[in-house]
Amino acid sequence: MKKLLFAALAVFAFSFSNAQDEGGSATSQGTWLIEANTGNAMVGSTAFTFTSQDGESVYNLGLDGGYFISDDLAVRVGLGFGGDSAADTNIFSYRLGAKYYLGGEFPIGVDLTGASIKDAQENPLWLGLQGGYAWFITDHIAIEPGLRYNLSLNEDFTDEGVFQFNIGFTLFL
Q1: CA–CA gap between residue 88 and residue 9 (Å, rounded)
Q2: DSSP E strand stretches across the chain
Q3: Residue 122: which CATH number?
Q4: Which of 57, 59, 98, 115 is deepest in the core (most CB within 10 A)?
Q5: CB within 8 A of 130, min separation 6: which ones?
Q6: Which residues are the signal sequence here (predicted)?
Q7: Backbone Cα Rg of the chain
Q8: Phi and psi of 19, rounded to 5°?
Q9: pTM for the complete prediction?
Q10: Could you report the average pLDDT of every consecutive run of 10 residues in the chain (173 residues)?
Q11: Nearest partner of 46 among 110, 114, 93, 96, judged by Cα
């Protein structure tokens, strides 16, 4: 399943890698970005995740998109949908934030991430801070490994923060 998902993402990305070549960098003002990330099974994720243990399966599917409002600075939104087979629940996740490419190669991001959980009395809300490196494999495609810290803003849901190691696949259009 992971290989199929990666292959589909690679075909999509390479098919659009030369869609726009206007002479600017991938992070120039007016450029769009589409990003898919790996992640852990944290509630409120817009990443691609799947875990299965002792008959319980937890999954999430999501994408982030953004627009560069100035060189190296993009505003982003993300949506995700997931579920938990043991709890028989659905989770809708959302993200709103900004991402700045320091020197065009080091993405630094801040965002607000939340989730709406079916039949839950409390829903999570996180302040996410992240940093990483953008490895451009073509002029319009980057692999972005990075670290992320999610600070809980809803102490009734959890008062613990969550560290993540993510690998993002970003297409710049």
Answers
A1: 29
A2: 32-37, 49-53, 56-70, 73-84, 89-102, 106-117, 125-132, 135-136, 141-152, 162-172
A3: 2.40.160.20
A4: 115
A5: 107, 108, 109, 110, 146, 147, 148, 149, 166
A6: 1-19
A7: 16
A8: -65, -40
A9: 0.78
A10: 44 44 78 88 72 84 95 96 82 94 95 86 88 96 94 78 88 95
A11: 93
Q: Which domain holds residue 163?
A: 2-172
Number of domains making up the chain: 1
- By three-state DSSP, how is residue 19 classified? coil
pLDDT of residue 3: 45
Amino acid at 144: E
Q: How many CB atoms lie within 10 A of CB 71?
A: 14
Report the relative pairing of strands 106-117 and 162-172 from DSSP bridges: unpaired
